[in-house]
Each structure stands twice: as structure tokens, then as C-alpha cells.
Design a protein that fits this description.
The protein has 124 residues and is mainly alpha-helical. The protein is built from four helices and no strands. The protein has one domain (2-122). It has helices at residues 2-26, 32-55, 62-86, 93-122.
């Protein structure tokens, strides 16, 4: 699970860096908020998830797989929604809102994993 999170983190970082280069080259910064989402929620969060799952191997069970999928879908949907609305298309507003909600669910799942695993590790 840790390696999958690390790889996902790197992909998000590459996409965000590419987006940053494109914005710089074109002087069109409408995708800035999407780039921040990709860097912070994509690169940063998935790197943190990977570090946690690498450090606490017991946490990388079934709920961790669900957490990975939910977090991944949330970041992608939110980034698409933000990009679409920043380009002035109101069709993407629901994607932005739904993506943010899915990201929040992912954080709740991660919190459950952290607190449940912490108690398990303390029992050893």
C-alpha cells in the first residue's frame, strides 16, 4: 500500500508541475487552484499516507485500500471541478463540491485508520 501511495504521489507531482509549467509559459493562471489541489492533496497527502502505511504496516489492510480509492477519486474529481469552474463553465460546479466532499470522506477514513491502528499497536 505504501508503494502505491508513493507512486500516486509522484504522478500527482508530475501533473501539477506540468500544469505549473504550462501556466507559466502561457501566462494563463486560471488553473492555479487546481494545481494547488494536485500538489497539496495529491502529492502531499499521498506522500503522508505512504509514509504512514510504510511506518505502521498493520494499518495497510482492507480499509486502507478503500481509503486509497476514495482519496484518489476525491482529488481527481475536485481538480477537474476546480479547473472547469475557473475556466468559467458552471457545469463543473457540482464536480468541485462533490470532489471536496469525497476528499473529506477520505480524510475521515484515514483518521479512522490512524486511531484504530494506534490502539492496536499500543496493545502489543
Amino acid at each position: 500500500m505504501a508503494s502505491l501511495c508513493f507512486r500516486t504521489s509522484v504522478v500527482f507531482a508530475l501533473v501539477a508541475a506540468g500544469l505549473a509549467l504550462w501556466m507559466t509559459a502561457t501566462h494563463d493562471y486560471r488553473a492555479l487552484h487546481a494545481e494547488v489541489v494536485l500538489f497539496v492533496l495529491g502529492w502531499g497527502s499521498f506522500m503522508a499516507y505512504g509514509l504512514y502505511y510504510r511506518t505502521i504496516a498493520a494499518a495497510a489492510g482492507g480499509l486502507a485500500k478503500l481509503h486509497y480509492v476514495v482519496a484518489l477519486v476525491g482529488v481527481i474529481v475536485e481538480a477537474i471541478g476546480i479547473t472547469g469552474t475557473e475556466w468559467g463553465n458552471p457545469f463543473f460546479d457540482p464536480f468541485r463540491i462533490i470532489g471536496a466532499f469525497i476528499v473529506a470522506v477520505g480524510f475521515v477514513l484515514f483518521a479512522i485508520i490512524v486511531f484504530a491502528t494506534r490502539e492496536t499497536a499500543a496493545q502489543r
